[in-house]
């Protein structure tokens, strides 16, 4: 092939010769290397999207299983127990707070018997 036809097809690359040509070839990037970094960034983004979609899908399946379980007798029973014990817990907190307040009222200085006997 002649040099002219090779140049038309894009097969001729002007390779620098000599010491400075070698230095230049090492320090400059290849013509397609910018394209490779863009492709790598796109691949990384698509892999992250794939991970996120997988996590969303797994979460949806878990939610579907919980909904199906809540429709069974055992699920309804545990749901009732959850409501019962949450009301019981609030009741205990209320009674404990009330008991502490009543104890403080008994120990105030104007109701204390030791202060009146002096």
From TrEMBL:
One Pfam family in the UniProt entry: ABA_GPCR
Keyword Protease (UniProt): no
Q: Which residues cross the membrane?
A: 77-94
| Name this protein carries in UniProt | Golgi pH regulator-like isoform X1
* GO BP of this protein: intracellular pH reduction
Question: What domain of life does the UniProt record list for this protein's source?
Answer: Eukaryota
Give GO terms: molecular function aspect only: voltage-gated monoatomic anion channel activity
Record organism: Leptonychotes weddellii (Weddell seal)
- Has UniProt tagged this entry with the keyword Protease? no
Point out the gene that encodes the protein. LOC102746648
Domain Abscisic acid G-protein coupled receptor-like, chain residue ranges per copy: 69-95
User: Its GO CC terms?
Assistant: Golgi cisterna membrane
Keyword line: Membrane, Transmembrane, Transmembrane helix
